[in-house]
Amino acid sequence: MKSIHLLGATGSIGEQTLDVLANHPEEFKLVSLAYGRNTATALPYIEKFQPELISVQGTETAHELRGLLTYHPEIVTGKEGLIAVAEAGSPGDILVNAVMGSVGLPPTLKAMESGKDIAIANKETLVTAGHIVTELQRKYGVKLIPVDSEHSAIYQCLHGDAKEVEKLILTASGGSFRDKARKDLQGVTVKEALNHPNWSMGAKITVDSATMMNKGLEVIEAHWLFGVDYDDIDVVLHKESIVHSMVEYVDGSILAHLGTPDMRVPIQYALTQPSRLAIPGSRRLKLWEAGALHFEKMDYERFRALKLAIQAGREGGSAPAVLNAANEQAVAMFLEDRIRFLEIDEFVERALEEHETLTAPSLEEILEIDQKTRSSVADYSR
Ligand SMILES: NC(=O)C1=CN([C@@H]2O[C@H](COP(=O)(O)OP(=O)(O)OC[C@H]3O[C@@H](n4cnc5c(N)ncnc54)[C@H](OP(=O)(O)O)[C@@H]3O)[C@@H](O)[C@H]2O)C=CC1
Ligand SMILES: CC(=O)[C@@H](O)[C@H](O)COP(=O)(O)O
Ligand SMILES: [Mn+2]
């Protein structure tokens, strides 16, 4: 029986993780969970799994939850609450990090220090502090197992070993506006941006897919997860999202991971690897139904956010943290209808231009840069 701790329980990945745990009660025990404010979604899961520790974002939510529960778990709040979940349980437990944004960084580090393996969906953690996360991974001998579909695909094609690899090839759907030219993106709406052609996901990552920042973050994520140089990571447009990513070996062989777009597959694999379990009710891929699969060379001018992200990744140091914070802030403003879609890329580019990169920032420096960048970007629209 594996003991699981879950950050971001009420989100898209969080709920699918709970579905995986519910399908295999003989394999997994949910010991603790964290969510933000969505008690209506959290409550039935909490009653079902009865975790002993729960973290919520604020004291009002804690009070509301306490009044609704039929048992008496420990309830903690805020950033300290996320840390408490990260530190709960025993070495060898698994923390599933499915919170949205760089708020996921400090708890990831604490969970590693307390000997947990990390099933990482929260790509912003690796983008903002990949050098710190990988250093702690080595120091504490814990596993960092990808949940992101592309990285899980690569992990499965690598069999855990990146030797003899020539290239990682990430596939990109093109997002909600994949069939539009850049000049036609001026007036696009939030509703249109949230209409991803293949995946049902949280709002922030869906907008990131539409700008292609998601793929940029994923290139940086792949660099840190697999220790592969940016020169050896390619991105190819693949509108069907059936080939989840590929590994090209030195002899020219390419191994690919295929499947229907169902995040329960990579989530569950992160919890069971190298073994596999059935997923009740999952839709199977029938290649004859898909018919043809399409691949196109990436256009880095059309998808400028991808280019910016790769540049920031290559620059390294604090640049990816600035990229990420500027993007999180700009996407939040877009979702609130305060800026236009194309301003997301513009604001990220401006934040990067204004930043003087630190070579190997500490956690404290990263958190400070994150806050400063968010407030600068908030000011760009005033
Ligand atoms: N969705 C997907 O298919 C994929 C997602 N990912 C990555 O996984 C992560 C989660 O994505 P997704 O599930 O879509 O996101 P969602 O927006 O659906 O969910 C985010 C979760 O984080 C919680 N949360 C947000 N801020 C805080 C906070 N300050 N304190 C505590 N909890 C907080 C939310 O709580 P509440 O809503 O209760 O406030 C919610 O449970 C992201 O990093 C994303 O890039 C990667 C690959 C695929
Ligand atoms: C499910 C998942 O992993 C997302 O990151 C998804 O891949 C988004 O797809 P695109 O960014 O390629 O549109
Ligand atoms: Mn992905």
UniProtKB/TrEMBL annotation:
<feature type="binding site">
    <location>
        <position position="148"/>
    </location>
    <ligand>
        <name>Mn(2+)</name>
    </ligand>
</feature>
<dbReference type="GO" id="GO:0030604">
    <property type="term" value="F:1-deoxy-D-xylulose-5-phosphate reductoisomerase activity"/>
</dbReference>
<dbReference type="GO" id="GO:0051484">
    <property type="term" value="P:isopentenyl diphosphate biosynthetic process, methylerythritol 4-phosphate pathway involved in terpenoid biosynthetic process"/>
</dbReference>
<keyword id="KW-0479">Metal-binding</keyword>
<feature type="binding site">
    <location>
        <position position="149"/>
    </location>
    <ligand>
        <name>1-deoxy-D-xylulose 5-phosphate</name>
    </ligand>
</feature>
<dbReference type="InterPro" id="IPR036291">
    <property type="entry name" value="NAD(P)-bd_dom_sf"/>
</dbReference>
<feature type="binding site">
    <location>
        <position position="215"/>
    </location>
    <ligand>
        <name>1-deoxy-D-xylulose 5-phosphate</name>
    </ligand>
</feature>
<dbReference type="InterPro" id="IPR026877">
    <property type="entry name" value="DXPR_C"/>
</dbReference>
<feature type="domain" description="1-deoxy-D-xylulose 5-phosphate reductoisomerase C-terminal">
    <location>
        <begin position="144"/>
        <end position="226"/>
    </location>
</feature>
<keyword id="KW-0521">NADP</keyword>
<feature type="binding site">
    <location>
        <position position="173"/>
    </location>
    <ligand>
        <name>1-deoxy-D-xylulose 5-phosphate</name>
    </ligand>
</feature>
<keyword id="KW-0414">Isoprene biosynthesis</keyword>
<dbReference type="GO" id="GO:0016853">
    <property type="term" value="F:isomerase activity"/>
</dbReference>
<feature type="binding site">
    <location>
        <position position="214"/>
    </location>
    <ligand>
        <name>1-deoxy-D-xylulose 5-phosphate</name>
    </ligand>
</feature>
<feature type="binding site">
    <location>
        <position position="150"/>
    </location>
    <ligand>
        <name>1-deoxy-D-xylulose 5-phosphate</name>
    </ligand>
</feature>
<comment type="function">
    <text>Catalyzes the NADPH-dependent rearrangement and reduction of 1-deoxy-D-xylulose-5-phosphate (DXP) to 2-C-methyl-D-erythritol 4-phosphate (MEP).</text>
</comment>
<feature type="binding site">
    <location>
        <position position="124"/>
    </location>
    <ligand>
        <name>NADPH</name>
    </ligand>
</feature>
<feature type="binding site">
    <location>
        <position position="196"/>
    </location>
    <ligand>
        <name>1-deoxy-D-xylulose 5-phosphate</name>
    </ligand>
</feature>
<dbReference type="InterPro" id="IPR013512">
    <property type="entry name" value="DXP_reductoisomerase_N"/>
</dbReference>
<feature type="binding site">
    <location>
        <position position="13"/>
    </location>
    <ligand>
        <name>NADPH</name>
    </ligand>
</feature>
<keyword id="KW-0460">Magnesium</keyword>
<protein>
    <recommendedName>
        <fullName>1-deoxy-D-xylulose 5-phosphate reductoisomerase</fullName>
        <ecNumber>1.1.1.267</ecNumber>
    </recommendedName>
</protein>
<feature type="binding site">
    <location>
        <position position="202"/>
    </location>
    <ligand>
        <name>NADPH</name>
    </ligand>
</feature>
<feature type="domain" description="1-deoxy-D-xylulose 5-phosphate reductoisomerase N-terminal">
    <location>
        <begin position="4"/>
        <end position="130"/>
    </location>
</feature>
<dbReference type="InterPro" id="IPR013644">
    <property type="entry name" value="DXP_reductoisomerase_C"/>
</dbReference>
<keyword id="KW-0413">Isomerase</keyword>
<feature type="binding site">
    <location>
        <position position="10"/>
    </location>
    <ligand>
        <name>NADPH</name>
    </ligand>
</feature>
<feature type="binding site">
    <location>
        <position position="36"/>
    </location>
    <ligand>
        <name>NADPH</name>
    </ligand>
</feature>
<comment type="pathway">
    <text>Isoprenoid biosynthesis; isopentenyl diphosphate biosynthesis via DXP pathway; isopentenyl diphosphate from 1-deoxy-D-xylulose 5-phosphate: step 1/6.</text>
</comment>
<feature type="domain" description="DXP reductoisomerase C-terminal">
    <location>
        <begin position="258"/>
        <end position="375"/>
    </location>
</feature>
<feature type="binding site">
    <location>
        <position position="122"/>
    </location>
    <ligand>
        <name>NADPH</name>
    </ligand>
</feature>
<feature type="binding site">
    <location>
        <position position="218"/>
    </location>
    <ligand>
        <name>1-deoxy-D-xylulose 5-phosphate</name>
    </ligand>
</feature>
<feature type="binding site">
    <location>
        <position position="123"/>
    </location>
    <ligand>
        <name>1-deoxy-D-xylulose 5-phosphate</name>
    </ligand>
</feature>
<feature type="binding site">
    <location>
        <position position="37"/>
    </location>
    <ligand>
        <name>NADPH</name>
    </ligand>
</feature>
<feature type="binding site">
    <location>
        <position position="150"/>
    </location>
    <ligand>
        <name>Mn(2+)</name>
    </ligand>
</feature>
<feature type="binding site">
    <location>
        <position position="11"/>
    </location>
    <ligand>
        <name>NADPH</name>
    </ligand>
</feature>
<feature type="binding site">
    <location>
        <position position="218"/>
    </location>
    <ligand>
        <name>Mn(2+)</name>
    </ligand>
</feature>
<dbReference type="Pfam" id="PF08436">
    <property type="entry name" value="DXP_redisom_C"/>
</dbReference>
<dbReference type="Pfam" id="PF02670">
    <property type="entry name" value="DXP_reductoisom"/>
</dbReference>
<feature type="binding site">
    <location>
        <position position="209"/>
    </location>
    <ligand>
        <name>1-deoxy-D-xylulose 5-phosphate</name>
    </ligand>
</feature>
<dbReference type="InterPro" id="IPR003821">
    <property type="entry name" value="DXP_reductoisomerase"/>
</dbReference>
<keyword id="KW-0464">Manganese</keyword>
